Amino acid sequence: YKGEFLHCAEATAEDVYPGVAHTRGIMLVGGVLLVIDDITSDRAHDYDWLVRCEGAPELVGDSQSVQSIFEDIEHVRIDRCLKASDSFRLNWRCETTDLGFALWNSAGECTVGIGDCPAENARGRASFLLCRTHARDVRFTAALVPSSSSDGLELAKHGGLIKVTDGNRAGYIFLREDGVAEENMAIQTDGR
Hints:
Elements: E1 6-13, E2 20-29, E3 32-41, E4 45-53, E5 56-59, E6 64-65, E7 77-84, E8 87-93, E9 98-105, E10 110-118, E11 125-135, E12 138-147, E13 153-158, E14 161-166, E15 169-174
């Protein structure tokens, strides 16, 4: 779908990993990019969610450092390994703009690795974030928001409501947790 304020697409793959169905939804809402991955199986698996960026990662909030569990990944260097609850937040400091990033994980606790891997140009390296969780079914919801300065940028999720605050402006995006849309669903708001 391509509209004036919303662009979205969705696809499902059931033949990549045996017994696992992966549905990815991508939405561009205003200036906010959402990536929603629903992964389901009849048994529990370790699921890894990965994102790369050319900028330097900067943690937001407190995280508990743990011993790395990511030794089995070729061509990747893990600099930090952290234990996170159901959410994780960082900013990437880039040359011309910053990128605010938040990742929410429906399975609960996860392990996050931050490091670098080969860049697309084969001469350099790019920073990345890898989130691993163990579950039968999981939903990863990521929000990426470019900003001239990520210092005043806040990303928060409460149930299906994502709040993006940049300075004194706030925007809200509502996602149904069960994936079912209702055309006339009432949402309480203080918007005018």
